[in-house]
Amino acid sequence: MATATQATLSLFAAPLPAKPRSLTIRCLKSTTRTTNPPIVGRKLRAAVIGAGPAGSSAAEALATGGVECFMFERSGPSTAKPCGGAIPLCMLDEFDIPSHLIDRQVTRMRIFSPSNLAVDFGKTLLPHEFIAMLRREVLDSYLRTRAQSRGANLISGLVTDLEVPTSVDAPYVISYTADNKRESLAVDVVIGADGANSRVAKSIKAGDYACAIAFQERIKLPDDKMDYYQDLAEMYVGNDVSPDFYAWVFPKCDHVAVGTGTVCSKQDIKVFQRAIRARAHSKISGGKVIKVEAHPIPEHPRPTRVRGRVALVGDAAGYVTKCSGEGIYFAAKSGRLCGEAIVKASEGGERMINEGDLKREYLKEWDGKYITTFRFLDLLQKVFYGSDAAREALVELCGDEYVQRMTFESYLYKKLADGNRWEDAKMVLNTIGSLVRCNILGTKMEGLKL
């Protein structure tokens, strides 16, 4: 390994051959005065570890902005993380997602309480509004291919080690296995987009976080039963299907995804999966399981998301929201924001960057936009997912059209919906009333921190 590392380091000083591109390179000039030294004879080199929505979006932004980018993907183009596959409407335009990737346009959500009280959620949607349902293997492949077309170099290999430099101007050395050969690559900056069990996070001692386990079965239904889920997604809450989250039946192209998740009782995940199958039995009976999937899901951002010239994005950074479990949009958004931050700080790949640049251009921007959302949804999960009584109150509240409008506008467009003060006050009173009726207000208020 020492010989390979020395060889790579010697290559590090030499410029790579220029690659012809038909794309106009977008150079984001930093408005912050910098003393970072210029890079002579080559461009800034970045490695993106992981090629899901976070990694591919980061690699696309880097390559488009003039940074020499290497994108590592261990799984190859045919596999993807198990996922419900729902994305907000704003992501379609913001990330140029073509309509042919969308399996289903969900316009109706039905949420079931522990007592099987059903409430339809979606009455306030406008004619053009819907939740897009995609398969991750399709979306990931598209984003990965697009990043390559912008100039990112895809390396199909398993990253085994990240050698952190001992001096501020030395490179990071990535060791990986490809085609049964041990290889290494030296780069200036690293983006860790390698999921909840991130090797990059471990390499920079980014700290631990709690993880949920998500378990999902893809079930191909008879045509008449699949018609029932044409534009409908279902959520189920209750201690039987999850003690601290929810279970789901989400429509895909020609099948449904049936799954659940939990943090506190991971060892019982298959018990909860049997329960969601039982709750939805009349609608999914006769179906054939075509795939079984399980994956860890982070519960909160990592203690450290930037160290040195290494940044974490997506699941590696812990960007999955509580309450809803949404992660695709925030993965892609964090990847793009981090990539653009590096382009900006390096002046289009012309200068070296440092930890301060990443914290200023990436972390400060991210936290300013989204950290309040994450904290708010964490609070909602603590209030409404702690007992079956609280879940009954949650489903009751979901029947209110004002609650539905505020929820969908915030979800679909990823910005705080414009509310009405009178309606907001009524919503607060209705929430308190529901909690009181469910006899949980006293026990919850003690631990509630606003």
From TrEMBL:
An individual GO BP term: photosynthesis
GO CC annotation: chloroplast thylakoid membrane
Listed InterPro entries: BchP_ChlP_pln/prok, FAD-bd, FAD/NAD-bd_sf, Geranylgeranyl_Rdtase_fam, Geranylgeranyl_Rdtase_pln/cyn, Geranylgeranyl_reductase
UniProt catalytic activity: phytyl diphosphate + 3 NADP(+) = geranylgeranyl diphosphate + 3 NADPH + 3 H(+)
Domain FAD-binding, first and last residues per copy: 45-331
Function per UniProt: Catalyzes the reduction of geranylgeranyl diphosphate to phytyl diphosphate, providing phytol for both tocopherol and chlorophyll synthesis.
Protein name per its UniProtKB record: Geranylgeranyl diphosphate reductase, chloroplastic
Organism the protein comes from: Malus domestica
